[in-house]
Amino acid sequence: MSTTNALLRNGVFVNWLTLSFVAMALSAGSVFATVEEEPLTVEEATLTEASTVLLSWIKARASYDPAMIDQLQSPTVKMRSHAFFDQIACHGSKRECHRVAWYNGGRIVYLRDDIDSSSVEAAGILLHELVHYVQAKSDTFVEENQCNRFRREREAYDLQKTYLIENGHYPTFAIRLSPPLGCVVAAR
User: Rounded distance, CA 72 to CA 74, Å?
Assistant: First the structure.
C-alpha cells in the first residue's frame, strides 16, 4: 500500500505515505543499540523529512531555545510491528503493550506500523515523540526521576493536544496524568 496524502501544515505541504515494515534489532536493556541498518524506505524518508516541519511547530510553541532546535537534525522515523513494541519498547512485559510510538533516546523515533500514517492523529503521535527528542537534546530534564518523567510526559501530551486541535481534530486519547507523591508541579 502506498497512498500519498498531502496535508497542509503551517503553510507547508507534507506528504504522508503509508509506511512499510523494516526490521531492526535492539537490545531491551540499552538506551540505544548500534546495528547495521537497512536503508530508509521512501515512506520512512518522507516522514523523517516531515519531522522537520513538526520541529518548527514545536519551536514556535514550546519554551525551548529556538536556536537549539534550529541546530537539531531531524531524527530518523522508522515503522515497526506490534511485536517489536512488545519486545523492545515494553521490554517483553507480560501485560499488553499499548505504545504506538517510542523515542529511545538516540536518533530514531519509532511508530507502530498499524497506525494510519496519513492521518493528522499520526502526525500528532510523531509530534509527541519529537517533543521527547527535543527534551533529550536540551538540558531541561537532566536528572532522571519520577517528577521529571511526569513533567516530560505532560508537556508532550499538552503539545500533542494543541497540535491536534489547531489542525481540526479533537484528541481521541484521554490521558489523566497525576504527579507522583512529593512532586511539585507548576499549574498550567
Answer: 6
